[in-house]
Every structure is written in C-alpha cells, then in structure tokens.
C-alpha cells in the first residue's frame, strides 16, 4: 500500500514540507510550512495533533524541552508506522484492534492517520463498519476517556455553554451530530452513538483532508429505547426511554441554533438519526444552513453515481430509465430523491414527473396512495396511483418486476437473499444489462450474493454492493464488483462546502458531486471493471468532487469565501493546499502569551477534553 500513500500525499508536488506554496501558502488552512507551538515537555507529548513521539528531530527536542523525555534514537514516520503496525497485528481480534487504534489516535494524530493510509484496505473495516458497530455496542464497557461533545436533553439550558468550550468562531469547520437512534444497522445505541460521529470525522480527514483538530463530534443524548442498555449498570447515557415530540424537536433546534451562533462557518453533518426524524430534520434545516445527512443524501449520491456509470455501459439515458427500490426507508428514499433530482436536472422534467420513473416496494408491497397513513413523509412522493396497478398479479417484488420491467433494481431492505433467482432472471429477460445493487449492510443482510447475480444473468448484470466483495467470474471471464461506499462521496462534498464556505448545500451541488464521482468510474473505460472507483484513490476523488461542488456553489452565488480560483488547475491546487496530510510539519516555538488556540494545544477533542 506504500504506493497509495504516495498518491494520497502527492498534492505537495515540488513544494517541500517546510516551504509555503508560492500561490496559496498564505491561506488560513494551508498545510505547508512550520506551525507554531507554545507547548513544551509532557504537555506537548500529550497533545495528539502536535506530538511526534520518537520522531521529534534533535533541534525540536532541545527547543521544546524533550531531551530527557524520549529515547535517544530519532525515528522516521515510516519506522513509527512499521512499529505501530506490528503492535496492531498482535491484537487478538477486530474489536481489540479497533481499541488499539483509538488509543493511538489519542496519542499521535499523524501516526494514526498515516498507519491507516498505508493499510487502508485492511483497516477500513476496523475503523468503520462493521467493527465500529461492535465498539459502539460496547461503548460503556470499553470507555476510557471522553471523545467529543455530549449534550443531553435534561440540560437544554447548558447546550450553548457546553458547545462554546470547543473554540471561537473560526475554529470549527465540520460538525458531525447523531442522536444514536439508528446506528449502522444495529439500532438504538444511545450515548454510544458518539463513536459514529467520531468515526465519520476520521473518514472526512482520511478521505478528504478535513483538518482533524477543526472538527467536532457531537451526540444528542435523548435517552434510549434499548432495553439492554437501560438495564446495564455500566451504561453511561441517560437511563430513560427516548424523549420524542416537541421536547425533542426543541432540543435539536437548540443545538443547531447554538452551533450556528458559535461556529457560523461550520458545516453540519447529521448522522444515524431514526427513520421518523432523519428526513424531517434534514428538510427543516437545509433551506437555512449548510447541512447534510449521509444516510439520506450520501447513500443516494454514491448509488446514483454507480447508476450513471451503469447507464453509460448499457447505453441508456437517465431520463429513460425505470428503477425499482426494494426497502423504502431512509436509505431507499434517499436514493430515490437523488435519482429523481438528477432526472429533473438533466431532462427538464418536474420532480413529480421524474418520480414516476421510480417504483418503491416496502413491507406492504408496492407503495400506493391508498396506504395513506402508513406512508412516511419521505415515501409519499413515490406512492403510485392505485388505478395504474389494477389487474396486476400482486404487489410483491416479483410482481412489480414483471409489471415495470426495470433497468435498475436497488436493495436497501436488510432482507437477506430477497433478490431470488426467479426475480433476477425475470428482470434479465426484459433488459440487456440489468443494473442490480444489493446494498444492505452488513454482508449477512445483502439481498443477493454478487456471484449468484452474475451466474443467474450469465455475466450480464452490472453489480454494486454495500460491502466489499471479490471479483466474480462467469465462463472464465472476471467481473469487478463495485462497492457503494459513501466514503468516496460525502467527504469530498463536505470539503467543497468547507472550503467555499457555502451558505447552503443545494440540490445542484449534490448533482455536481455525483457527476464528478461517476466521471471517475473505471467502467467508463472497461465495462468489466467496477462501476465506482476504489476507495484507495479516495483523496484524488475528493479533490474532483470538492472542485465540482465549489464551482457549482460559486455559480449559484452560495460561496462566501473570497479569492476562489476560477481555472481548474489553480482551483485543484487551492483545494490540495488546504487538505490536511498525515505528515509531520516543523514546529516553531511561540510564546504562550498571544499564541492561538492551535499553538496552545486547545484545538479539537484533545484540547477540549483537557480543559473540562
């Protein structure tokens, strides 16, 4: 994976780490040149984003009073990575490896991210799903030290003050907030949800270079309906059933308004809210602030990008496509929305007309207008007139496939093996290259195995999944299976919003992001390759997505940052210069008096935790 690291860090080009970029080195988020540090001795060693451990060079050891606090031999970052990887490899199981990585992040931020970069494929499932789900389920038992900001519904009056300790108006760029109700397919995890906020922010740094000490993970503790947690004497959250209704809405609003007052430039990412709230909260705040919900929009964006690549291979226009979605929850309706909006943007159709190209199937079967009160707010636009389904065989998935003859079938149902051989072959009998995406996570919940889909369609299916799968074969020919990994999409969108300081995240900005991702599909050059680019290339993917998002924000008059370059080449360099790297920068000693929060070690999780 060493080649990946070089590629992920290549944006410095000919600029040396201790030199400013001649064009953009004076930017506030510039990553070139030395950084000020007012800490010395153990205070410096205990500040993860400034600590270099055994890699402090001799001159910095003298300047910052470290000579007696470290072994004599100076390590390189590569040697530290090798040592850390050996330690990581001795851990007994995946959860122990996850805990080791958490500990490393609390000691040395650069080493933590560089270790992941060098072993990205291997470690992705450790730092994120599925292992992070195990860590969240065991949060109160594994707890060692606080990570992030804990707000609870019993203390709404303290929300503003609790948020305020994380810095000044210029200190926070990216906030991830959850209420812990619907975590990674494992349901209500209460206060343990803080770890999904932490994990998402790790991905924004790893995949898009968002500065890790300028981010803020938040959990809104509203209680929990998880009986196991309520009965657990070690549970650390509010020990009461979830609060809902007006009191809940007021709590969320207090958080949002406080965050906007304190950090007016910050982008807010809503994560793993429950089905009744996720879409509703997003719809409420989208017209007012730059915000995003990965479960709704991220899943929709990455899936739409894969669909666009599949349509290119099958030589079909988006405006002529018919799609069936099996599982019309947060993810399913989020995908439907992104596809509908893209059809409308490309064809000039209204959103209502575009929605008619999408059929949603859920627990009651095909969603119909007669279901009325059973429909969620997000499902209503996709409910069909009962009259158009009169005389059909039924309302189940097979009947819908027979009636609709879709080009695209997407599964977000969490119902394993629900894409049966009969259903898949029925679909393949009507279209030349069926586009089939079993997206439910984890793997045991997939609607179908890619090897079965490939076999049943005689190698014609264009497949993307929600988890990584090896290539599949048919009659000696190999086909790559794309992974609809949100991490190829949401970090670049967030980076674009952060750097442009966009007032909102518009529909057109999301469509621009999708097109930028789809344009990097390997299948555009070879139809047997994956429909989406590999996560290994995610830093460069994020540059292209951020560029598209920024250009669209400028076009719509939403960007508020001054001096955004117009030309593509300059804009890319402008973006790269502001992306944080897992590399040690030289430290320059500054006096504590007059030093900024960064130099004083007060930025990010570590700084706030140290003050509390």
Quick structural overview:
The chain is of the alpha/beta class and 612 residues long. 41% of the residues lie in helices and 10% in strands.
Describe this structure in words.
The chain has 612 residues and is α/β, with parallel strands linked by helices. Among the domains are: 128-289, Rossmann fold; 297-484, Rossmann fold. The chain has 25 helices and 16 strands. It has a seven-stranded mixed beta sheet with strand order 9-8-7-10-11-12-15, sandwiched between helices. Strands 2-4-3-5-6 form a five-stranded parallel beta sheet, with helices on both faces. Strand 11 (435-438), helix 20 and strand 12 (462-465) form a beta-alpha-beta unit. Helix 18 (397-404) runs parallel beside helix 19 (421-428). The chain is globular, with a radius of gyration of 24 Å. The protein starts with a helix and ends with a helix. The model is unreliable at 1-20 and 606-612 (pLDDT under 50).
């Amino acid at each position: 994976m060493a080649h990946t690291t070089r590629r992920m860090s290549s944006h410095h080009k000919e600029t040396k780490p201790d030199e400013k970029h001649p064009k953009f080195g004076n930017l506030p988020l510039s990553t070139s040149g030395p950084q000020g540090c007012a800490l010395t001795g153990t205070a410096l060693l205990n500040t993860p984003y400034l600590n270099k451990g055994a890699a402090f060079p001799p001159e910095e050891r003298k300047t910052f009073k470290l000579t007696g606090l470290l072994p004599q031999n100076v390590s390189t970052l590569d040697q530290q990575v090798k040592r850390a990887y050996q330690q990581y490899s001795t851990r007994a199981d995946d959860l122990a490896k996850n805990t080791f990585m958490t500990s490393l992040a609390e000691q040395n931020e650069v080493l933590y991210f560089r270790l992941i970069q060098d072993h990205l494929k291997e470690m992705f499932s450790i730092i994120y799903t599925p292992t992070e789900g195990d860590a969240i389920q065991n949060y109160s038992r594994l707890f060692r030290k606080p990570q992030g900001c804990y707000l609870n519904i019993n203390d709404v009056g303290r929300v503003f003050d609790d948020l305020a300790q994380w810095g000044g108006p210029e200190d926070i760029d990216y906030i991830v907030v959850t209420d812990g109700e619907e975590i990674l397919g494992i349901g209500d995890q209460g206060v343990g949800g803080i770890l999904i906020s932490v994990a998402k922010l790790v991905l924004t740094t790893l995949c898009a270079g968002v500065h890790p000490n300028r981010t803020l993970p938040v959990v809104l503790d509203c209680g929990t309906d998880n009986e196991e947690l309520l009965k657990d004497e070690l549970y650390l959250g509010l020990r009461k059933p979830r609060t809902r209704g007006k009191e809940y809405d007021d709590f969320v609003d207090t958080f949002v308004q406080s965050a906007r007052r304190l950090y007016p430039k910050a982008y807010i990412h809503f994560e793993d809210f429950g089905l009744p709230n996720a879409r509703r909260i997003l719809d409420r705040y989208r017209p007012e602030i730059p915000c995003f919900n990965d479960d709704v929009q991220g899943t929709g964006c990455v899936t739409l990008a894969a669909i666009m690549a599949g349509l290119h291979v099958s030589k079909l226009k988006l405006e002529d496509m018919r799609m069936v979605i099996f599982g019309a929850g947060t993810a399913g309706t989020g995908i439907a929305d992104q596809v509908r909006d893209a059809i409308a943007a490309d064809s000039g159709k209204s959103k209502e007309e575009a929605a008619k190209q999408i059929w949603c199937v859920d627990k009651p079967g095909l969603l119909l207008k007669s279901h009325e009160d059973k429909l969620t707010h997000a499902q209503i636009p996709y409910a069909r007139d009962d009259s158009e389904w009169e005389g059909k065989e039924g309302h189940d998935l097979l009947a819908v496939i027979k009636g609709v003859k879709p080009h695209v079938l997407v599964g977000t149902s969490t119902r394993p093996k629900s894409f049966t051989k009969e259903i898949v072959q029925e679909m393949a009998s009507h279209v030349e290259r069926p586009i089939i995406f079993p997206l439910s996570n984890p793997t045991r919940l997939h609607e179908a195995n890619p090897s079965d889909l490939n076999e049943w369609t005689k190698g014609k299916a264009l497949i993307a999944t929600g988890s990584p799968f090896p290539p599949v074969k048919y009659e000696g020919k190999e086909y790559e299976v794309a992974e609809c990994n949100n991490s190829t999409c949401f970090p670049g969108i967030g980076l674009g919003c952060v750097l442009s300081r966009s007032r909102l995240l518009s529909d057109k900005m999301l469509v621009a992001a999708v097109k930028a991702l789809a344009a990097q599909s390997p299948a555009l050059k070879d139809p047997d390759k994956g429909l989406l680019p590999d996560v290994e290339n995610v830093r460069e993917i994020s540059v292209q997505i951020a560029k598209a998002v920024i250009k669209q924000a400028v076009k719509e008059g939403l960007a508020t940052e001054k001096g955004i370059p117009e030309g593509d080449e300059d804009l890319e360099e402008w973006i790269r210069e502001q992306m944080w790297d897992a590399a040690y920068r030289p430290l320059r000693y500054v006096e504590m008096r007059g030093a900024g929060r960064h130099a004083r070690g007060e930025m990010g999780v570590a700084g706030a935790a140290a003050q509390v």
